[in-house]
Design goal:
By secondary structure, the chain is an alpha/beta fold. It is built from ten helices and eight strands. It has one domain: 3-Layer(aba) Sandwich (Rossmann fold).
Length: 314
């Protein structure tokens, strides 16, 4: 792995931050209870506030409707479509209001988080279909609504998986790849057949091996081949995808997913920045700590650079 001096300098403080995060997380694991219990969250993590200036819009999808949670700055340059994590089973578009509001202001982006339907009630491919529908709504309405045409898609963990699959659907089903100008893939899961780091991550925080299997059990209920490119984007044809920022920590069971995805994107001729945070654990960007703050700042800079490039290309 290529060392980044700025990130390597964080190693000691990240190790210290990890100890504080362990106390926040406690000892309970998602896989030790029911889905309903998992959705109550972890005791040490307080719910995020719902901000009054956020906008909620409902759009139709096959078989129902979903909500889009939006933050709109004064002079937007593009749309950042956020797909939340949670193993396709837990989490919500309403969990990240403060971070999405800050991202909208810092990057001059219309920040939209998608309340896609969750497994096991709605297993594969519902979440993928909902995210595609959200992307289609943005692509069809962003110019009239906010005067912008370009789109960056991003998310964490399962949201990284959904970001990659949504990008492929924008290219192949919606057929407007030029409108997508960036991917922000934050410790995503790209191989649901399980990479070596997933298989050996029995003692790693938050999503050890058995927890990953628990999520997969609820998400894949139709006998899907986990190596099908429609399920695991690592196996897809990745040609033509936009510049990507991939972020991961070395103590994350999904480390290999990011390493392998970066290699596959590069082999497909795509522009990739791979940021590896020494000692970083899964979800380090949503917990307090220096590494998470730097990663979020770099993500903001990446999104801004996507708008810069797209405007220079006009």
């Amino acid at each position: 792995m290529i060392e980044d001096p700025e990130l390597e300098a964080l190693r000691a403080v990240t190790k210290s931050d990890n100890e504080a995060i362990k106390h926040i997380l406690g000892t309970r694991r998602f896989s030790e209870g029911s889905v309903a219990e998992a959705r109550t969250g972890l005791e040490g993590i307080p719910p995020q506030p719902i901000l009054d200036h956020g906008i909620t819009k409902t759009i139709p999808v096959p078989g129902g409707e979903i909500a889009l949670r939006m933050f709109v700055p004064t002079n937007p340059r593009g749309v950042y479509l956020h797909l939340h994590g949670g193993g396709w089973v837990i989490g919500s578009a309403f969990d990240r209001d403060p971070k999405l509001s800050a991202l909208a202001s810092n990057t001059n982006s219309v920040a939209i988080s998608v309340e896609y339907r969750l497994a096991p009630e709605f297993p594969f491919p519902t979440a993928l279909d909902d995210c595609e529908a959200a992307a289609q709504w943005v692509l069809e309405n962003s110019e009239e609504e906010w005067g912008v045409r370009k789109l960056v898609v991003g998310g964490e963990s399962a949201g990284g998986h959904l970001s990659a699959t949504t990008a492929l659907r924008i290219r192949d089903q919606l057929r407007v790849p030029d409108r997508l100008v960036g991917l922000n893939l934050v410790y995503g899961v790209f191989d649901l057949s399980m990479t070596p780091s997933q298989l050996t991550g029995h003692d790693l925080p938050l999503i050890p091996t058995e927890t990953m299997r628990w999520f997969y059990k609820h998400f894949l209920q139709g006998g899907e081949d986990p190596k099908d490119p429609k399920v695991s984007p690592l196996y897809a044809d990745l040609k033509g995808l936009p510049p990507s920022l991939i972020t991961v920590g070395t103590n994350d069971p999904l480390l290999d997913d990011s390493l392998f995805m970066a290699a596959r994107l590069r082999s497909a001729g795509c522009d990739v920045t791979l940021d590896i945070y020494p000692e970083g654990i899964h979800a380090f960007t949503v917990f307090p700590g220096a590494a998470g703050q730097i990663a979020n700042d770099r993500a903001d800079n990446f999104i801004t650079s996507c708008w810069d490039r797209s405007e220079q290309a006009l």
